[in-house]
Design goal:
The protein contains 13 helices and nine strands. The protein is α/β, with parallel strands linked by helices. It has a six-stranded parallel sheet with strand order 3-2-1-4-5-6, with helices on both faces. Strands 7-8-9 form a three-stranded mixed sheet. α1 packs parallel to α6, α8 crosses α12 and α8 crosses α13. The model has no long low-confidence stretch (mean pLDDT 96). The structure holds nicotinamide-adenine-dinucleotide.
Length: 299
Amino acid sequence: MTVTLAFIGLGNMGAPMAANLAAAGHRVRGYDKVATCLDAAATAGVTPAASATEAVADADLVFTMLPAGRHVLALYDDILAAARPGTLFVDCSTIDVADARAAHDKATAAGMRMLDAPVSGGVVGAEAGTLTFMVGGEPDDVAHVAPFLDVLGRKTVHCGGPSAGQAAKICNNMILGISMIAVSEAFVLGERLGLSHQALYDVAATSSGQCWALTTNCPVPGPVPTSPANHDYRPGFAAPLMAKDLGLAANAAKATGVRAELGQHAAQLYAAYAQEAGVEADFSGIVRDIREQRDGGPA
Ligand code: NAD
C-alpha cells in the first residue's frame, strides 16, 4: 500500500526532510506559505499542494517543521478538521513544552493522534538523513512512524508521553549552551594566564573538563580542525537557534519553579550575542564576546 505523507514547512530543515521521504519512494504532498520554498521542494520530488488543508486531506501521516509553537498551534486550528479521523500528526519543530502539550490536546480533541518529535543534527543532518529524533507520545504511534523516521535519521529515542520529546531537546541544549560558555571562559582565562590553546585542550580533553563543546565544537581555532572556530565561526549550530532553545528552557524552568541559574544566565548571554555579533555565527563564537568583556582588575 502506498502511504501518502503531508509535509508542511519546507524551510531549511523541512525541505531536505521532505525530499528524503520522497526519494525513499513515498508520496509526499508539501506545503509552505512561501512560494519559492514550495517550488524548490517540487524540484526535489515533493508534490506541491495549494494549501495546508489540501495537503492533509488524504494524508496518512502529517509532518510539520515550523519556526515556533504559535505557528504549529495556528496551523493545527486550520488543518485538524480537514484530515481523516485518526490521522497521525508528527511535529518535528522545536517549540515550547507548554505549546507541545496544547498541540497534543488540540489533536486528540479533534480525533487525531500526535507525536512531538523535535530533532538534533541541523541542516547537514536533515540533508544526509542522519537526524536524531526525540519523541513524546504513545508507544503505538512511535512504532507507526518509526519506518519514516528511519529514512530521516539515524536514531530515535522515545522519551515518554506528550511533550517529552520537546523536554528532552531543551534540557540537552541547556547543557550544551552552559557548557559552551564554560569552555569559552576557560580558554579566555587560559589565554590571560599565558596558557596555549593546545595545552589546555590536551589536558581538559582527557580530564574531567571533557565535553562535546570542547572536543567536537571547540570554540578556539586549532585543537579540533573541523570545529567552526577554524572557519570564521560559520555555523554549525547558529547562535540564534541556541538563543531560541535556551529561551524555551528558561520558560520551562520558570513554569516548573526550577531555579536553573546557569540556564537562565546562558539564555541572557546568548540572546544578547545572537542579536548582534552572533546573528549569523556559530554558537561557539560567543568566545569572542567573552574575550572582549573585562571585569575590573588590571588589563
Ligand atoms: P525555517 O524558517 O527555514 O523554515 C520554516 C518554514 O515554515 C518556512 O519556510 C516558513 O515559510 C514555513 N511556515 C511558517 N508558517 C507556516 C504555515 N502556517 N504554513 C506553511 N508553512 C509555514 O526554519 P528551519 O531552520 O527549517 O527550522 C524549523 C524548525 O526546526 C524550528 O523549530 C527550529 O528551531 C528547528 N531546528 C532547526 C535546526 C537548524 O539547524 N535549522 C536544527 C534543529 C531544529
